User: Fold this.
Amino acid sequence: MTHSPPVAAGDIVAAAAEVAEELFAGAAARDAAASFPDDAFALLHAAALMMAPFPARLGGAGLVEPDAAGALCHVLRAIGGGDLSVGRLYEGHVNAVALVARYGTPKQLAALADDVRAGAMSGVWNAEGALPATLERDGAGWRLRGAKILASGVGSVTRPLVPVARGEATVMTIPHLGAGERADLSRWTAQGMRSTCTGTVDLEGLPVGPGQVIGGDDDYRRQPNFFGGAWRFCAVQLGAVERLLDLYRADLNRLGRGAHPYQRQRIAACATAAETAALWVEQAARTVAAEARPAAEVLAYVGLARGVTERAGLDVVEAVHRGLGLNSFMRPHPAERVARDLATYLRQPAPDGAMADAAAAVLAAPAPARTLWRDA
Ligand SMILES: Cc1cc2nc3c(=O)[nH]c(=O)nc-3n(C[C@H](O)[C@H](O)[C@H](O)COP(=O)(O)OP(=O)(O)OC[C@H]3O[C@@H](n4cnc5c(N)ncnc54)[C@H](O)[C@@H]3O)c2cc1C
Assistant:
């Protein structure tokens, strides 16, 4: 098998910045269509971004390797700023490749790379509904039972990574799905993130060969990477926060309203919020990648970074609505869509729990505050 030549992580960052503007130009049409963004993923494939998470030996840019955490953060931010729905889908793809790279065999990673090179994409479908997904023995192989809910890209993501219960443990599987198969989008009526096509997938009876079970029992939940990976969705959200700031100041400049002291106060607050979130998210990415600090500390840092990013998003949405007024609620003003997408995507699992666990870790830490997250 011949692969395309490997791409450097720096080139991928530049490619993502370029693609982001093309994504932004098409985002209104994708939102209106509320269908899977095939056009956007054609762009990401063409720019080598779909292969980028894979190692160089498989034709990627090693974007999920520890020394590329900063580059991955830039890429997720850029794509999220281009189109938040596309960013969400891309983050799922990156997460799946990272899990296979960490816990799968070289053969499994190469097989996924072959499929992605041929045009497929992955994602992680973990959310559970009334019919929990399980893996049951079927002769020499296995079969899936049940369903997953809130699965982004159902009907289009054909190589999803699906964590399922096997007895008391959780194992990761990569079932092979055909386009349009087993997908139910009837309940995806969210106000934003429409083109993520987030729906239910019926897994009942799907065969899973031995080569499609990734890693061992409970590898999926292994910390600090399980919760620590939340920095990636924060990076995608941050892209939208930064886009809103860009849209806000462009309008103020265009309308000649930038000199007003209250507008300036709001712009200062938005710039501070965006930069604060950026500093936290970048540091969270580095801290998780370094694997050098105790797990409790890493998880606490990422938990707090989630709160900082959420606060930045909520504050910037409010400031833009107050600063641009009714116009920012009117289609086709792009701030209308970006704010709607961001408000939806800010809803992530158990935010109170993440904050409370981080607080408990801070309470229990013996170090003085100035050395809580770094050596003296
Ligand atoms: C656009 C989009 C795409 C998504 N795509 C995927 C996907 O591809 N794969 C996937 O697996 N998932 C996906 N999800 C689902 C996502 O991972 C979360 O499951 C979902 O966003 C949870 O949101 P929630 O607000 O209902 O969370 P919840 O955790 O239910 O939080 C809602 C509120 O309840 C509180 N709360 C939580 N637990 C408790 C408790 N035990 N007691 C009291 N209060 C509690 C929280 O702190 C919060 O205040 C997606 C979500 C979105 C928005």
Observations:
- Residues 328 and 335 are 6 Å apart (CA to CA).
- The mean pLDDT is 96.
- Residues 88, 92, 123-127, 150-152, 193, 196, 198, 344-345, 347-353 surround flavin-adenine dinucleotide (CB under 6 Å).
- Strands lie at 134-138, 141-145, 147-152, 162-166, 169-173, 183-184, 198-202, 207-208, 213-214.
